[in-house]
Every structure is written in structure tokens, then in C-alpha cells.
């Protein structure tokens, strides 16, 4: 497939080599005159400037380009980097056309094991990101990081306020699990959170992330794709959205979550949405997002390929329980000390799934209590 027909090249100022040979500018292949060979790349950056899904309309300048300007001046991390920048996506004739265009492009990249990094545009563009997974012939999981839970019902709501509802209600359903992270409970109606609980999906509000950010790691590790709204960050760290919010993730916490996402062996696309450069007078938010991208890339190149649970890279723990089930099986990676939990369907023993968990889940089981993650996964398995 000729992906070049969907993209505009970058301006010359965004493709120049850096005077410092150690910066990312000298390691990324960017689209100016020749379209990059994305098939040979590990990661592909895609700039988005589609705002028809936002009630606030489009900003005056291209947000992805503002972030790029700072991202490429950052130092290259450890190891090799095979990163291409495909340029800026040309929006479709309609917003729905843009969703379908993203579906086709991301789906093609997934087929060649190239991880798309989507940058810019309104948060509803993750619907196109989601659609790319429809033809994988397996259930997928995803996580979103946002101050709100975008599940508006009424027909007059902007797509960016209702995209999550559209994803969860998509037919045919190919979604296994969903996790909502860093929402602010005073911004979310109680019935919305109750609906997620009824669907057996996991939520982790901002206060829980702040208390122990490690709780977010298993949720991000289970995701096939992640979408991150810049509005999840507090305004002082990322003045790039409206209305301003004095509460939210710090830039350090956001970078940590980006690292978790990049380090996830299973994750195959990452979206960073909602950045409005018009509000970002000093470029602080652009620098924050550029650093988040750096941590995502660095996390990717620290992946360990921890997927073969029968290999010697894992320690298997069997924990007896007083009720049903009589036993739980955990796996611990020797190198990273990450934990997984094996869940066998109570209705059909042929159905089994190994899901990320935490040491706390193992500890709870060792005390004779069923971990909540087992209960939720059991419900999803049916």
C-alpha cells in the first residue's frame, strides 16, 4: 500500500539535521521530499490536525509540528533507534473519512509490526485508532488516560465528548478489556462510572495514580493500544487545552505513564491527543509532550519480550485458596519482576487468559483472598 498519498511532507525547518550529532534529529527519517521506508522502521510518527470532532474548533497552528520542533532536539536514548516521521495526515472530506483513513493507515502499519505514534488532533481520533484492530481476528484491550470519561449520550455532543461510548458500543464487538486512568471523579457523572463497573472494566482515578503510580502499570501493560488526552495533565504543566484545570497529572507522572506504555510488549499503537498550541505561549506543553514521546520511545527500546510464560525467564507460583477456585497460578518475570495472573474460565475450562497483575494481587491471594483482577477477568471471560 502506498501510504504517501495520505500525507503532507514536513516543512524544511522540521527536517534539518541538528548541530549536535547525538540528538534524535539525526536518527529519525522524516518525510520532506522522499517518503520514508516505514517497513524497515520500528516506530512511525504521524502528525494530526483534524479538529472537526471538537466543539472548540481548530487551533490556528499545527500542534504536532510544535511538539516535533522540541522532540527532535532531545538526546537519543540508549540503543539503536529506527524511527520514521510520515509527516502530517491529510484529513478526509468528512470526519468519518478521517477515521477510516486512520483505520487503513494504522492497520497497514500493524501488519508490518511498525508501531504508529499519533500526535495531535482531538481525542475522538482514537476511534480511527480503534477501528484498525477490527480485522485482527482476536479480542483486544485498550486504555485511555483522560481527566474526563468521554461517554456523552445526547446527539448534540461533540465527537470528542462521546468517542469512548462509540468505541464501547461498536458492533461487532472485538473489545476484551478497557481501562480508564487518571480521571477526576468530580468531573465524571456517577452513572458513567457505574456503567464501566457494570461492564467489568477497570478504572483508576487521579488520586489513586498519585498515591501509587505503579497501580497503573498492569493496566497499561494489558493494552493493545493507548490513547492519552493532554487534558489529563494539570494546566501548570501543560497549558494547552480549555477550560484550564489546576488539577491533573504532573509532567513527571505523565512521562512515567508514557514509559509504561512504551515498555508494554503487547502495545502496538500510541495516541497523544488534544494539544492546542494557541494556549501554549511559552511552549511548556510542547516540551512536556515531546518528553513524553521520548519516554515512550525509550520504553519501547527497553522491551524484554516477556510473553513465553513456560520459559525459564519466569517463576511460576501456585497459590491455594479455601474456596473456588481452589488454586491460582501467578507468573513472575525474573528480570523485570513483573507479575501475571492466569485466569481460567469457570464456565469453560478450555478458555484461559494470562493477564498482567501486581505483586499486591499475589500477596492478596497468598492471604486467602481473591484478587479483584481475577474477578473482573473472570466476568469478561464469561
TrEMBL record:
User: Is the Hydrolase keyword given for this protein?
Assistant: yes
Q: Name one Pfam family in it.
A: Arginase
CDD domains xref list:
Formimidoylglutamase
Could you tell me which InterPro entries the record lists for this protein? Ureohydrolase, Ureohydrolase_dom_sf
Q: Where are the transmembrane segments?
A: none
Identify the keywords attached in UniProt to this record, alphabetized: Hydrolase, Metal-binding
Report the domain of life of the source organism: Bacteria
Record-stated family: Belongs to the arginase family.
Q: Protein name, please?
A: Formimidoylglutamase
